[in-house]
Each structure stands twice: as C-alpha cells, then as structure tokens.
Amino acid sequence: MVVGFHAGLPMPGGFAGVDVFFVISGFVITGMLHREWLETGRIRFGQFYLRRFRRLTPALALMLTIVVASAALFVSPLGGRQVDVLMTAAAAVMLVANFVISAITGGYFDAPAEMNPLLHTWSLSIEEQFYLFFPGLLLLAWLLGRRRGWTWAPALTIAALALLSAGLAISGQEAPDHFYSPFGRAWEFAVGALLALGLTPQRSLRVSARTLRWLGCAALILSVFVISGDQPFPGPLTALPVGGAALVIASGGTSQDASSRWLSHPLLVRVGDLSYSWYLWHWPLIVFARALWPHTPIALPIAAALSVIPAALSYHYVEGPCRRRLPSRSRTAMVGVMVTTLPLLACLGLLRLTVDGYGSPTVRHQQEIVAAQHASQTAGCSLESGGSEWPARNCTWNSDAQGAGIYLIGDSHAEHFSDAVIEAGGSLGRPVVVGTHGSCPPIAAVVWDAKQTSAWNRHCIATRDHIIAAISNSPAALVIFAASDKYTDEGRYLVGPDAEHLSGTRAGKLSAWRLGLESMVRQLQGVGHRVVLVQTVPRWTSVDDWYTTGCLIPTLFSTSSSCSHEMPVARAAERQGDVRRLMQNTSTVTGAEVVDLWPRFCGITCGTNDPGYLRYRDSEHITVAQSVALAPDFVAAIRAAG
Predict the structure, then answer these.
(1) Which pLDDT score, from 0 to 100, does residue 502 have?
(2) pTM score above 0.90
C-alpha cells in the first residue's frame, strides 16, 4: 500500500498502510510480551530491547548512512534541503524523527515532504516510541491485576489508552502536527494489543473466521481508494485500515478459503519477509528518481520496483544476520556504537559540505539567494501564529514619510512582494504597512483549508476580519492586495460566502472568490481607499512542476550553473487563466488598478531564472532578488492608482 502510493500509482489512500503496520506491530509486540508473562511471570526489558535493536537498528543505520552520503549528489544544496536530510537522519538515530520532520518539513502531503528522502522514518520513530513506553505500562497493569485479582486490568488499561488516543485523532485535529504525533496513533497499536490479549470479534460475537477475513480484506482494499490526502488524517476514516487489519488478524489461519490461500501465497509471504527493508529503501530511491527525472512519472514506479534490490541485500546481509548472530552483549554493544556513529559521521560530513557551498562561489551565491528572507518575514508580519495585533510598529516601513500610506495585504504571495512594495514606497516617499497570513487571503469570503484544523481556519477568518477592519478605520490610503490563485483549483480548499456555505467545485469556488474579491474591494473603496490588485506570478505545477530540488550539485557545477526550467506561456495561462480573467474583470467593475507581472517572467516561455539569480525559491514563491527587481513595476502601479 505505502510503496504503491509513493510510486504514484492510482492508490490515493495507500499511505494508510502505515496504520495497518501499527496494528500489526501492536499485535506482535503485545503477543510476545504476553507469552513471556504467562510463562515466567515477569518481563525482561533488557532482552526485549535487545531484540528490538537487533531487528530494526542495523538495517536502519545502513540506510541512513548511504542516503545521507548520497544526498550530496541527489538532494539540492539550495533551500536547506540537505540540512533537512541530515537533521532527519540524526533525529531517526535518536528515535524522534517524527517530531523533527513535523518541525522542518511540514505536512506529509505538502511539496517539501516529497523532497525529504528520509520522510518515511517518522513512522519508525513512532514505533520505537511505542516500544519505549508500552511494555512498562503493560507490566504495571499485569502487576496490578495480579495483586488485586483483576484479570481484566491489562485489557482495560489498553482500552482506555485506545479511547483517549482515538479521541485525540478524530476530534477535529486541533494539533497542526497530528499526522506525526504518537498520541493520535497510539490507539492503532492498542487495537493490535487487544487482539493479542485474546479480545477478538470471533470470540465475542461468534463470527466465522472466513467472514472476518473477507470483511477485513474488503476494508483494506476500500481504504486504498476512499481515503486521500485531501482529508484530515488521522480521522474517522482511519477506522477503515485499522479495522481491516484487525479483522484479518482476528480471523487467524484456521479456515481455508480463497482469501486465506491468497494471503498465505508464498509470494506474499516473501514480500512480508522483505517488508521492513523494502520500506526503508523504497522512499529514498523514489525521491532521488524524482530529483533526477522530475518530469518523467514512470521513473517513480521503476525506482520503487528497483528498491527491492537493496532491500533484499539488506535483508540477507544485515537484517537477518544481526537478528540471529549477535549472541553476546559486548558484541551487540560494539555494533550499537558502530550503527549509531556511522549515520552521525555522515551527517557531519554533509553539513560541512553544504555550509561551505561545496567550495564553490556559484553554489554559495545561489544558496544565499534562495535562503534570503523577505522583509516582512524578517520583521514577523505574518499573523498566522495568532495573538498579535496589527498593524504593528515593526511592520511599518518609511514611517516618517509624508505621503499617503500603502497597505500590503494578502497571503504568502503578498509576503513575497513585500521587498518590492517597501522599496517602491521608499522611492515615492510613502509609508508602507504589511500584514499577511499564509494560505489565508483577506477577501470577503471564507477560504477553508480542509487539511488544517478547525481552530486554524477559525483564526484565519478572524485575522481576515481584523485586517479589513483595521484598514477600514484608517485614513485614506492605497491598499495592495496579492494572493495565490491555488484556492480554486486545489482540492484541499473550499470557498464560500461563509463557513456554512462552502463549495468544493471549481465553478463554485471561482464564483465565491469573485464575489468575495469584489466585496472586499468595494468595502475598502467605500471608506476612501484606493485598491491595487496583483496578478499572481506563473506557478510551476502539473507537468511543469519545478522546485529547487532540480538544482543538484552536478548541475550547479556545470558551465551554465543555472538550474533553469521553462514552460510555454500558453500552458501556464491555460492553468491560471480563469483567476487572471477574474482579477481583470474585478478591476473593470470596481475601477481598481491591476498589476500584471507576467511580462517580467514570460515571453513565449516562462522561466525560473533571470541572468544572475533564481527567480523562484519554490514552485510559486519568488526570491528576494526577484522581488526587489519588481520594485519599478509597483512604482508605476502606485502612481497610476494615485
């Protein structure tokens, strides 16, 4: 499921295979501990953790070392991507990759995640955190049950843990990093643990094993196609893969039918043997293939298939031998030091190379261009974090200027124009105030991000109202509005006049966006402000997807050293034309000025590079260097608007 999803096959819910894995892990580990408790009346933690170390760590350390070393060639040194790799590798060694990935890479389905070849280690860290916490909790429950005569104490403890965790996972996802959180995943391990303790539907409901198995298989297959990255996850639909895995496990292997024979087929059993090593190796190869051949979709499934080769080698020469042939504690300790040291040494080597720009002034120059933060970013003018009043003193430039004020508002696209607007304001002798909120355009409509929490979306609405009210109560000024055009074509966004009437269709979203934009412009004009609307820059999506990941060291050291990419302007206009026309029509009916920057990016083709610098820092946001170069365009627009 997971490999198919990552390979780009039509399996939108394949990533839920990790949830299946968590159920299996809970079942296997609890079964192991339960048998030991029944046989000996105690749990030998040293032996338990030694087995887990032998089973997981050597193969993981080998993969981490090779991937970190390979990142020098197959991960771009621009945009901090190589630093992300080494930070993730170090975190994986220390069993906290899920927390670090959440902090540095962001959402599992966001573009940066596709560029981290160690993204998949998040689930391994959660598994290892489960191993650290759960055996002790289970032992306490067994000891309490033995002392009090409560045989049901372990099952009750696990059930309580499952209910608490499931509640956190399903109750609206109030934590932005809930996907990577062990607290919202613990219930999946707990389901497997309850099965290991003998609490199966077959026993309690007297359902046949065959029925359970067919229902489980159906739920697993359904989850591959019903679940997608556009839905909150984990959430209610997580019950499909978790429940399906639980039913298949509960069915046992006693009855023989088509499903039983299929699940026990030698080929599938072989895949099961290789599954851990295959999981370790498939994602790095897919990421490297995407970096080398970004516009060749077939490269991803080929890379996924070829990853079986290093997986098989790792299984036969590392995973298996380390599990079977480390009888002494001293030898295990020696291997432990080695397998934790090698990835960290590789991380230090990569860090030195990327910090030094590989000894190349060209590489260092491009790194500085991509890493430079926009003026409003540096000043902290994004209201996304919540709690800050606006306008704030640190978000006002040229405050002593005597001209009429300029407000720059919008989402992250307004933020990336801040350098241009601030410079334009300075040359015209006018103060500039900036207020933005990522993925939250302040139009008179609701833009609801289905991947964010309800609290985040409510804060977005409140921020929108706060910005518009603050400007409406200010002396007459010029308001520059800039926002991405992605909200009408990406499935994660819903748009409507209010939170109760949201549309997910492109036509419905375009209509709501048009009405909301016109209403916002008229409201500001009604209190004396002039308005300038900024057409969004060409975005590098679909078949023209581009990111600085294409700027690999071999390319940067080539004679051109440009990492450039081009796309036909007609293709970009076809994708973004609806919103461009909508903005122009809004200008026509309201009298607002429009700034169209496309001639600065496109002729017959649109390009990612200007001579001397990269125009873009990702697929839709421009660099500081490009923003400064646009200052004359904003000077002209401000003069035209008055």
Answers:
(1) 96
(2) no
Per-residue pLDDT tens for 450-469? 878 788 899 999 999 999 99
Q: Which two tokens stand for residue 154?
A: 């372990």
Tokens of 482: 């800039």
The domain spans of the chain are 2-355, 372-539+577-595+622-641
Distance CA 298, CA 275 (A): 22
Spatial CA neighbour of 391 closest among 466, 310, 333, 323: 466
Gyration radius of the chain's alpha carbons: 28
Q: Work out the burial of residue 330: count CB atoms within 10 Å of its CB; fewer than 13 is exposed, 13-18 middle, 19 or more buried.
A: exposed
Other Cβ atoms within 10 Å of 226 Cβ, number: 14
CA atoms of 456 and 467, how far apart (whole Å)? 16
Cα–Cα dist 231/13, whole Å: 10
Helix, strand or coil for residue 537? coil
Q: What is the 3-state secondary structure (H, E, C) of 7-31?
A: CCCCCCCHHHHHHHHHHHHHHHHHH
- Portion of the chain with pLDDT greater than 90, in percent: 65
- CATH architecture of residue range(s) 372-539+577-595+622-641: 3-Layer(aba) Sandwich (3.40)
Pairing of strands 613-614, 605-607: unpaired
Measured between its terminal Cα atoms, the distance across the chain in Å is 58
Distance CA 408, CA 424 (A): 12
Cis before 391? omega within 30: yes
Angle at 116 between CA 494 and CA 275, to 5 degrees: 100
- What are 235-270's pLDDT values in tens digits? 889 999 999 999 999 887 655 677 778 888 889 889
592's tokens = 């607002």
Residue 176: pLDDT above 60?
no
> How far apart are the C-alpha atoms of 466 and 110, rounded to whole Å?
28
Q: What is the mean pLDDT of residues 359-373?
A: 90
Q: Is the dihedral of CA 9, 12, 15, 17 positive or negative?
A: negative
Structure tokens belonging to residue 331 = 């030898």
